[in-house]
Design brief:
This protein has about 180 residues and is α/β, with parallel strands linked by helices. It has six helices and six strands; from the N terminus they run H-H-E-E-H-E-H-E-H-E-E-H. Helix content is about 40%, strand content about 20%.
Length: about 180
């Protein structure tokens, strides 16, 4: 490695935030007041790639998928300014126990956790496209877990907590009727 490469590597390592696994919850609580409409929080499995979009911040949690999802949903429930639109991969119900041992138990645990919440199920690539587009302009907090089963990531697109889609529709209608 030449001197220029060493300097560049040193700069990158200095500028990239290095968070220990135990810091993820603290970071969530610190950043939650800053997050708003159009931001995302992703609770990802361990094979989820490290995205390079400038708006995507990846933190290794060292924790399980259900535990992190529960903590994030609890933190969001305590806020008034945002509410999550919860998305899961439409591939998840089709992942077989043969190919991913324990997937049935995971699906059951996730179903129980999300039972009282409205969720959307979309193809993985469609969610990733939405996330990629958002990451160009808006902050995405990606919490990487130690979970090792495919199509298990939980995607939370944040919406305004004190303004409903119906209120927005009524506003737009009033604006066009004048």
């Amino acid at each position: 490695m030449n001197k220029t490469s060493q300097i560049l590597l040193s700069l990158v390592l200095t500028l990239v935030p290095q968070l220990r696994a135990g810091d993820w919850l603290q970071t969530l609580h610190q950043e939650l007041p800053l997050l708003g409409h159009r931001n995302w929080i992703v609770i990802a499995d361990s094979a989820y790639p490290w995205q390079t979009a400038p708006g995507v911040q990846t933190i290794e949690t060292g924790k399980g998928q259900i535990e992190v999802t529960r903590a994030v949903l609890d933190a969001l429930a305590a806020t008034k300014h945002v509410r999550p639109v919860i998305m899961t991969d439409s591939e998840l119900p089709y992942v077989s126990e043969k190919n991913a041992p324990g997937i049935t138990a995971y699906r059951d645990d996730l179903r129980k956790l999300l039972a009282s919440k409205k969720t959307e199920s979309l193809p993985h690539e469609q969610i990733i496209r939405k996330l990629d587009e958002a990451g160009k302009t808006f902050h995405v907090l990606l919490l990487k877990t130690n979970h090792t089963q495919p199509y298990t990531s939980v995607f939370l697109q944040l919406e305004c907590g004190y303004w409903s889609p119906m209120a927005e529709k009524e506003l737009r209608s009033a604006m066009t009727s004048r």
